[in-house]
């Protein structure tokens, strides 16, 4: 009797929230969580995390470096609802209150290997000057009650936002049994194996 084929595939991701560029701000920390479809389920790792507070580097880049690890495994029966990572960056305002400095989201890479992603961040804006002044004075800036709304389309068209900063992530992706279920994500002999590293000094 022939063995039954796989009924699910696995997506294994590790990496890190590497760094950020927020020229106007310092002493920031980052939160992350995942948004995924109803056919997906996490099987290992952490679905959310919060980093340490970091200060700008003293060189010309003035980068905010976290190197905060990501490690999660998902299983699914189909690619619909492919997981997204949602980032929220927070820091102190002039009164010492923690306020949001940026939201952003990106899909986890579809193909196995090593990937680098730079995410443009944004913040919600007050709809009037009075609300803007009141929120500044009270130390309560506009923010989403649930950051996961960033990864969804519903209601976003009525939200006023402003671009602000960038966050860089590194991903190492391995998939299992996707080809057996009929999904082609890359060369058959390198599924989950990245190519040779470039010589020192060359960009990835």
Could you give a short description of this structure?
The protein contains one helix and nine strands. It has one helix at residues 129-138; strands at 9-21, 29-35, 40-45, 48-50, 64-76, 84-92, 98-107, 113-124, 161-176.
Explain the overall architecture:
The chain has 204 residues and is mainly β. The chain is 5% helix and 44% strand. The protein has a five-stranded antiparallel β-sheet with strand order 3-5-1-9-8, with no helix packed on it. It has a four-stranded antiparallel β-sheet with strand order 4-2-6-7, with no helix packed on it. A hairpin with a 5-residue loop joins strand 6 and strand 7 (98-107). The termini are far apart.
Largest sheet: 5 strands, antiparallel
Percent of residues in helices comes to: under 10%
Radius of gyration: 20 Å
**Mean pLDDT rating:** 83
Helix-and-strand structural type: mainly beta
State the order of secondary-structure elements, H for helix, E for strand: EEEEEEEEHE
Enumerate how many helices there are, as a single number: 1
Describe the strand arrangement of the main beta sheet, using strand numbers: 3-5-1-9-8
Q: Regions with pLDDT < 50 over 5+ consecutive residues?
A: 188-204
Shape: globular
Got a strand count? 9
Distance between the termini: 47 Å
List keywords for this structure.
204 residues; mainly beta; four-stranded antiparallel sheet; 1 helix; 44% strand; globular; disordered C terminus
Break the fold down into its secondary structure elements and pairings.
Layout lengths: L8 E13 L7 E7 L4 E6 L2 E3 L13 E13 L7 E9 L5 E10 L5 E12 L4 H10 L22 E16 L28
Antiparallel strand pairs: 1-5, 1-9, 2-4, 2-6, 3-5, 6-7, 8-9
